[in-house]
From TrEMBL:
<dbReference type="InterPro" id="IPR001709">
    <property type="entry name" value="Flavoprot_Pyr_Nucl_cyt_Rdtase"/>
</dbReference>
<dbReference type="Pfam" id="PF00175">
    <property type="entry name" value="NAD_binding_1"/>
</dbReference>
<dbReference type="GO" id="GO:0016491">
    <property type="term" value="F:oxidoreductase activity"/>
</dbReference>
<dbReference type="InterPro" id="IPR039261">
    <property type="entry name" value="FNR_nucleotide-bd"/>
</dbReference>
<dbReference type="InterPro" id="IPR008333">
    <property type="entry name" value="Cbr1-like_FAD-bd_dom"/>
</dbReference>
<dbReference type="GO" id="GO:0051537">
    <property type="term" value="F:2 iron, 2 sulfur cluster binding"/>
</dbReference>
<feature type="domain" description="FAD-binding FR-type">
    <location>
        <begin position="13"/>
        <end position="114"/>
    </location>
</feature>
<dbReference type="InterPro" id="IPR017938">
    <property type="entry name" value="Riboflavin_synthase-like_b-brl"/>
</dbReference>
<protein>
    <submittedName>
        <fullName>Oxidoreductase</fullName>
    </submittedName>
</protein>
<keyword id="KW-0001">2Fe-2S</keyword>
<keyword id="KW-0408">Iron</keyword>
<keyword id="KW-0479">Metal-binding</keyword>
<dbReference type="Pfam" id="PF00970">
    <property type="entry name" value="FAD_binding_6"/>
</dbReference>
<dbReference type="InterPro" id="IPR017927">
    <property type="entry name" value="FAD-bd_FR_type"/>
</dbReference>
<dbReference type="InterPro" id="IPR001433">
    <property type="entry name" value="OxRdtase_FAD/NAD-bd"/>
</dbReference>
<dbReference type="InterPro" id="IPR050415">
    <property type="entry name" value="MRET"/>
</dbReference>
<keyword id="KW-0411">Iron-sulfur</keyword>
Length: 252
């Protein structure tokens, strides 16, 4: 019987070569890298890969990065936030060039993924670069022309920290596009009525009945403190724990 490749299953644990085919600036500290992988069986929205760098003396460092978009003819994308002292993130954002070879392993993770066949409304809550796997879900929805209600709440320090800002604005303006809300913790635009500050319970309920009474599935991604705070707000608002999926990150 013929075997069909299942995204996220076959070859996920095997290290393979990936070639850098593109790099673009998202913010002053975040870059998106395009990587061509010869053997890629696809992935699910929300999955991630491991990237391994090897120094001339044999020292190796491995970090995990979320996939930022559906695969395009064997080309995948990751968005990397450069962190102070981050040995891998600094290399990927400041040193890696088109044509460079990286080692990757994946796709990985089958819990923090969006099932495109699930008609439930989707609430996405991101802190900083936690928007990356959520953007993969938004792009997958747009590419498949799915009309499932979807809302993104993205907490950033300043307007300049809005990763994918222009693209999200364009998608939100389309008929049937996602609802997008930015929250600012340090500095907000002069047109913003919400004072800068941390995530509040009211930020997760825009009062427009966007779910039409249906129970949404919630995806929360960001730094540990942000994720815990957001999950607690959702639980307090009546969302069921089994409908809240979280992913957190540390130093890279």
């Amino acid at each position: 019987m013929a075997r069909t490749a299942i995204p996220g299953r076959l070859g996920a644990r095997r290290w393979q070569s990936a070639t850098v085919t593109g790099s673009r600036l998202e913010t002053a500290t975040a870059h998106t890298l395009s990587l061509r992988v010869d053997e890629w069986n696809g992935h699910l929205p929300g999955q991630h890969i491991d990237v391994r760098l090897t120094a001339p003396d044999g020292y190796q460092a491995v970090r995990s990065y979320s996939l930022a978009a559906p695969a395009d003819d064997g080309v995948i994308e990751i968005t990397v936030q450069r962190l102070p002292g981050g040995e891998v993130s600094a290399f990927l954002t400041d040193i890696a060039m088109i044509g460079d070879q990286l080692e990757i392993r994946g796709p990985l993770g089958n819990w923090f993924v969006w099932d495109q066949d699930d008609p439930s409304p989707v609430l996405l809550v991101a802190g900083g670069s936690g928007v990356v796997p959520l953007m993969s879900m938004i792009r997958a929805r747009d590419r498949a022309d799915i009309q499932t209600p979807l809302r993104l709440v993205h907490s950033v320090r300043t307007p300049q920290d809005r990763i994918y800002g222009d693209e999200l604005t364009r998608l939100a303006a389309q008929a049937g596009g996602p609802s997008v809300t930015w929250l600012y913790t340090r500095t907000a635009p002069t047109t913003e009525t919400r004072p800068p500050g941390r995530l509040r319970p009211s930020d997760l309920d825009d009062g427009s009945n966007w779910t039409s009474g249906a129970t949404p599935i919630c995806f929360v991604c960001g730094p540990t403190g942000f994720v815990e705070e957001a999950a607690n707000h959702l639980l307090a608002a009546g969302h069921h724990a089994d409908r809240i999926r979280t992913e957190r990150f540390g130093g890279r």
